[in-house]
TrEMBL record:
<feature type="transmembrane region" description="Helical">
    <location>
        <begin position="50"/>
        <end position="70"/>
    </location>
</feature>
<dbReference type="GO" id="GO:0000155">
    <property type="term" value="F:phosphorelay sensor kinase activity"/>
</dbReference>
<dbReference type="InterPro" id="IPR011712">
    <property type="entry name" value="Sig_transdc_His_kin_sub3_dim/P"/>
</dbReference>
<keyword id="KW-0808">Transferase</keyword>
<keyword id="KW-0902">Two-component regulatory system</keyword>
<dbReference type="InterPro" id="IPR005467">
    <property type="entry name" value="His_kinase_dom"/>
</dbReference>
<dbReference type="InterPro" id="IPR035965">
    <property type="entry name" value="PAS-like_dom_sf"/>
</dbReference>
<feature type="transmembrane region" description="Helical">
    <location>
        <begin position="77"/>
        <end position="97"/>
    </location>
</feature>
<dbReference type="Pfam" id="PF17159">
    <property type="entry name" value="MASE3"/>
</dbReference>
<dbReference type="Pfam" id="PF00989">
    <property type="entry name" value="PAS"/>
</dbReference>
<keyword id="KW-0472">Membrane</keyword>
<dbReference type="InterPro" id="IPR000014">
    <property type="entry name" value="PAS"/>
</dbReference>
<dbReference type="InterPro" id="IPR003594">
    <property type="entry name" value="HATPase_dom"/>
</dbReference>
<dbReference type="InterPro" id="IPR013767">
    <property type="entry name" value="PAS_fold"/>
</dbReference>
<dbReference type="InterPro" id="IPR050482">
    <property type="entry name" value="Sensor_HK_TwoCompSys"/>
</dbReference>
<dbReference type="GO" id="GO:0046983">
    <property type="term" value="F:protein dimerization activity"/>
</dbReference>
<keyword id="KW-0812">Transmembrane</keyword>
Amino acid sequence: MTSTPRSTAPALRQAMTAAAFAFIASLILWTNQQHVSRFFMLSPLLVHTLLETITITIFVSVFIVCWNAFGGHRSRSSVVLAVTFLSAAILGFVHAISFQGMPEFTGPSDMHKSFSAWIACRAIIAMTLLGLSLNPKDPNLSQKQSDIFLGVGLALTAIICSVIFFFPHAIPLMYSTESGQTNFKIGCEIILIVINIASAALFLRDGVKGTDQQVEDRLEIARIPLFLASWLMGISEVYFSLYAERSDVNVAIGHFLQLAAAVAIYRSMVAINIHKPYTRLATQTIEIARAAGELAAQRERLHRMIDTAIDGIITVDEHQSILMINPAAAAIFGYDADFLPGKSLTLLIPERHRSGHGTHLKKFGETGSTRRKMGSHYEDFYITGRRSDGEEFPMEASIAHQLENGARIYTVIFRDITDRKIAKEKMAQYHEELSQLSAALQSIREEERKHIARELHDDLGQLLAALRMDLTLVQRDPELGNKSQSAIQSMDQLILTAITTLRRIATDLRPRALDEGGLFFALQTLQREFSQRHRIDCELIADEDRLTLDDARSTAIYRIVQESLTNVARHAEASTVTIEFEHFPDKIIFSICDNGKGIDEEDMKKSRSFGLVGMRERVKAMHGQFHVSGNAGEGTCLHVELPFSRQTA
């Protein structure tokens, strides 16, 4: 079961109540015609003319609204309704002026003309409402198509009027003086009753479903009043089929019902579309007032935010005249907030920057960019401001612009970064000092390792070698027994192991190959020992002739390769390692890559990754670049780039 929308339910109840009342009252009158026929109108012509004039006026109003309500946005239904009710008004006028008793129309044949116009008028309205109740497709029509519809409608109306006036006998007789209304006329009334009742039923169905046409830029048609209009027109046709004399009260009742139907049509098409723009205007006025209130509240919030912001905010026009400045900005520059509006922005810019500032501002506005940071350096987006006492200070700022009434408006948001800049400079100084300290410590540690390695090799190594020689002499004594010989051999083996361990420790501290054979020979030795010790295939790709460097770079490269191989042995679980050098006139690039399990980004950032930290510091001390890359399961590559002046041997 379809429910009636709440907005149409009251109107539907009122229409059905009025329809029921009209039907019940008419039913009572129809069943008591012997009593009703006793009453006659004293001035039937006056009553008829007055009611017809009001009806004609309403029909003309319907035409005006349906034709002009939405200008060029006309649907086919609105054009058909406009033409229909204009034709109905014309035919109604013909009916009124040809009614018996009107000037120049006193002959008995005049009522035939009047009834002919009457039937034509009611037939046009009934058929149009029936077509509208069937909900046909309703496309838009152009102005030319609308004019064609209007022209055809007026031409047909003119033809009908010409036939009524000049060829009345071509139409079956509607009224005779002796017998009154003819059967043909009554038959026509019955047909109109059926058409109107059918239209009323269809309009009632649409009203219950709530299918009123409510398109923003087209004619709005309320179907519930049309249900009532069709119903009343059907009932009125019954009265018009009952009377015999033009002064019969049935004529008056029929015309009153016809007038009520016309009023219902007026409400369904004219009143609703006349009130619609005013209703929309009132709604829009309320919405505008609400939006204005919200805008005022937003502006108030914005002003409070600007006034309480700790950052400075300045708005200027394209001529660099200050339009707005918040208290924080005024305080940063050392001015009173009420003093700066209207002043030039150059008052806040150091003199050496004033000449070019306007050009930069104009260029920014013409680029099409809406906002950007100010300043030139990618790390330090700051500009210089000037306080009221002439002191200059750094500012971090961003600028945005927009068009207002064709003029560019610029807004700058900034903050004083004097303390930050000082802190950053101190931090950079501390960092430089730490880098120098790290380089010095690396150098001192390398010298100390070189010294310890030399002491171990030259002193302790010599002592162990002498001790072994003495032990060899003792071993040759023939008086020693077998037990003593075994003990001496064991001691000799321990001394040999100690000498081997001593040499390995000394080599780890400072490989003699680096001092005696150079970097290439030291790397070859490191490669060979790494492969033998850890069973990992290690390949060195380098040009011996171009790998002759100064001691500092040679030591740094050797230690980086040594630490990298140590990390591979400890963590990578690799089977191959490649050490490759590339030589350029002003730099050397080398990489150590393995096919191990790789390294995660988090592992490279661990604070306790001292091996990576040490390598990075060595590279930084020589103003080089250090980069580690690797993905899980794809191995790890260490890339180093060192600038240098190539040394010759």
